[in-house]
Write a structure and sequence with these properties.
Length: about 180
């Protein structure tokens, strides 16, 4: 009888485990630290945007949820594209695959433009024309500027005439290497 009860419990446990819906691809269980970091990044982003657009508190309160939906949609398109590109990154590339990837990139660009146009109509309800132009200009700039000199990391700073060994105020040499008078 005990054995039958144990078997029954095992069957119920297995059936319950398989009855759960599968997790979507790329979905991980919520990590409290990662969630807190995401929320902090979003808060800082909202503050930067509020300052850059010179928004009132009321305007920001109404606009931010719409803007967050916009960024989620744009980032979702970009993430899907990146996953596909990463998949093909180390695979041999023939003409057919290359053309397919170019078309996928162009389709993703078209989706992004379509989403931007749709959200532009929504943004008009909350922002002035000047703020609207700034939203899309801010969106097109890289999040972090590259801090690298013209010669690459570790290269000496170029001098006034572009030669690394020139001294300030020194005139470039004449053709043939002779110094200029």
């Amino acid at each position: 009888m005990k054995r039958l009860l144990c078997m029954l419990c095992a069957v119920v446990a297995i059936c319950t485990a398989y009855a759960q819906p599968p997790m979507p691809p790329g979905h991980r269980p919520a990590d409290p630290k990662a969630e807190a970091a995401r929320n902090e990044r979003m808060r800082r982003s909202v503050e930067r945007m509020k300052q850059a657009l010179d928004m009132t508190d009321k305007q920001a309160e109404q606009f931010v949820p719409v803007y967050q939906a916009y960024t989620r949609e744009i980032n979702g398109i970009r993430k899907d594209l990146k996953m596909l590109m990463d998949y093909y990154k180390d695979k041999p590339m023939d003409k057919k695959t290359a053309m397919k990837l170019v078309m996928v990139q162009l389709d993703a660009d078209a989706e992004i433009i379509k989403a931007k146009k749709e959200y532009l109509r929504l943004f008009k309800m909350y922002l002035t024309p000047e703020q609207l132009s700034k939203v899309f200009l801010l969106d097109s700039k890289p999040a972090r500027p590259h801090r690298q000199g013209p010669g690459g990391p570790g290269a000496p700073d170029p001098k006034p005439d572009g030669r690394p060994d020139a001294k300030p105020g020194e005139r470039p040499a004449a053709p043939g290497g002779a110094p200029r008078p």
